[in-house]
Every structure is written in structure tokens, then in C-alpha cells.
Amino acid sequence: MSMFDSVQELLDEHRQLTDQLADPAVHQDQGLARRLGRRFAELNGIVSAHRAWQAASEDLADATELAQEDADFAAEVPRLTEVEAEAAERLRRLLIPRDPDDGRDAILEIKGGEGGEEAALFAGDLLRMYTRYAESRGWKTEILSSTESDLGGYKDVQLAVKRPASSTDPAEGVFAHLKFEGGVHRVQRVPVTESQGRIHTSAAGVLVFPEVDEPEELEIAANELKIDVYRSSGPGGQSVNTTDSAVRITHLPTGIVVAMQNEKSQIQNREAAMRVLRSRLLAHQQEQIDAENAATRHSQVRTMDRSERIRTYNYPENRIADHRTGYKAYNLEAVLDGDLGPVLQSCIEMDEAHRLQALGSSDEA
């Protein structure tokens, strides 16, 4: 069965969404309108690519038929064959099943790992890298929570990244790009605390979660939550607040725990904690779905396993290396300054290749 056989269902869905989004009642529910709009934008690309492929196929068929009688048409056949093949490949790639969370914004959690103060400083470098990269794409960033180290690094930090509301293409979503950052990032350099000039290896862990658009999208019953309040603390454990403004929320069914203390208001910390908790629960749900479909799970480069070493940042050699894709470049300084695009593109391309391979296997079956 041809992979294009499924495209009619998507064209029908696109027409249905067109009608739904034209209904003013739909827009009274902003969460619903946003979800429908995200799916509509994804299907728009498929509809356009399908039209282009159909037009190219018809042109090729006409030229092939007329080529038997007209040399001019015969001369056009090779070029039109190439155009049709390119249009078919473009459509084929768009028909690759996407990660359902690609169009979402994201929350990154960065934690200093092995290496003490040096690891915390490296976590700060990663935070700066992601912030600069977001700025280069016109995305907005917001630090939700952070625990600074004594030397100005971060023991842990949570960063929310959002794209403009006008951007609706799922392929350009924040999560579509940053989901590949989950795992262990290893750094090799001479630490500022090293007096002998020796190169040390330390690491920071990164987790990436898709952000929930609306609280109503993911319902959490009050009896599923355990909420504790306590006083905020700074570097070294000293109290920095005289009131119980810090909040720790435990989701009892899954055991997921989120703590927030950056804001002076307990209400603000609770809202930020719930925002992160919803994102973690959404990721947890998707992990369960992936686990039920082993083929999909293993075909993806994306991982949220902090134990997997995904990348090395080697300062003496000015080298950046991604261990999943084999990407290697000697522009470490530029990458840490936000030039992360080529590294992420290598992950996107490998992920697409795996999905295409899986799709081809299902077609043969």
C-alpha cells in the first residue's frame, strides 16, 4: 500500500478544521481554538505539498503522453520527472508521523551533575546557550526557578521557552527543536578552581518537557496532590525569606515532585510549580504511549533520560560533538553563544530518517 493512500484522510480533516475554526463558538474556548489551530497549521503544509505533487504528476503524465509526437515535450520529460520526484519526497517527509508535542512551548530543567562547583558553572553556560539560541529565533525565555551556587553557577534552574503566538507551524515549535537536548552534557576544560591547569571532566543533566497550553487541558484532581510550604533558602542553605513562601507539590499517583521558591509570594510559587507539574505529567503520559509502541520509541533520537550522555563540549580543542548523530564541529565558542542550529538540525535529520525507515517498513508490511 502506498504511503500516500492515507493523505485523503488528512485532506478531509483539514476541511473539517477549516469549518470548525470558522465557527465563532470555537474561539470562545481559547484552549480548544489553540489546539485546533496547531493541528490546522500542521495540515496546511501537507495540503500545499499534496497539491504541488498532484500538479507535478499531471504535468509529467501530459508531457510523457505528448512526447511520442512532439520532441519539445520529450525534452521536458527528464526535468519534469525530477520535479515530480522532489515534490513526492517533500510530501513523503511531511507525512512522517510527528511527535504530538512538537508544536508546544517547552520547559527546560538544567542541573549541575558530577563536578561540584564546576558542574554548576557549566549548567550556567548551558542556560546562557539556550537563552541566546531562543533569542536568535525570536522566542521568549523566563526563569521559573533557580538555585545558584557559591561561584555564580546553577545547582539547578528551570527555564520556560515560548515562541510568538503568530507562529503556528509545529515543525518550528520550541519543543520540536529543544526536545533533543534531554540527557547528560559533558564538559572537558580547566576549571576556574583548578590551580594546576589540569583538564577536568564534569557534567550537567538536562530534561525537556512540553508545556501545557491551558490548565484545563490536563486535569489534576485536588486529592492527587500533596502540597507543603516552607521557607526559601539560598546558597549554603541560609534562609532568605521569613515567611513560608516556598512550595513543594507532590503528585501522589506518579510520585512526581516539583518545588518552587524563587517568588516571594506563596501563590506565585504555587502557580509556577503547577505549571511545571503539568508539563512533567504531559511528558509522563507521552512516555507511557511510547512505551506501548516500542517501534516508535526506539526510532526517535529524543530522550529524557538524564543518564544518557548525549554531547561533549571540549574547550581545549574548541570541539562540540553529539554522540547520537556523530555531528562534530570546532566552533564551541559560537555554539555556547547560541549558534545551536546545526547541532539540532543533525538530530532532526536523524530522527526523520528513523521515522522514514519505520514508515517504509510499515508500508512493506
From TrEMBL:
The modification N5-methylglutamine is found at residue 238. GO terms for molecular function: translation release factor activity, codon specific. It is found in: Cytoplasm. Signal peptide: none annotated. Methylated by PrmC. Methylation increases the termination efficiency of RF1. Residues 231-247 form the Prokaryotic-type class I peptide chain release factors domain. Its main location: cytoplasm. Keywords: Cytoplasm, Methylation, Protein biosynthesis. InterPro entries: PCRF, Pep_chain_release_fac_I, Pep_chain_release_fac_I_sf, Prokaryotic/Mito_RF, RF-1. GO terms for cellular component: cytoplasm. It holds the Pfam family RF-1. The keyword Transport does not apply. PROSITE patterns: RF_PROK_I. It comes from the Bacteria. NCBIfam families: prfA, PRK00591.1. Peptide chain release factor 1 directs the termination of translation in response to the peptide chain termination codons UAG and UAA. Belongs to the prokaryotic/mitochondrial release factor family. This is Peptide chain release factor 1. The lineage of its organism: Bacteria, Bacillati, Actinomycetota, Actinomycetes, Micrococcales.
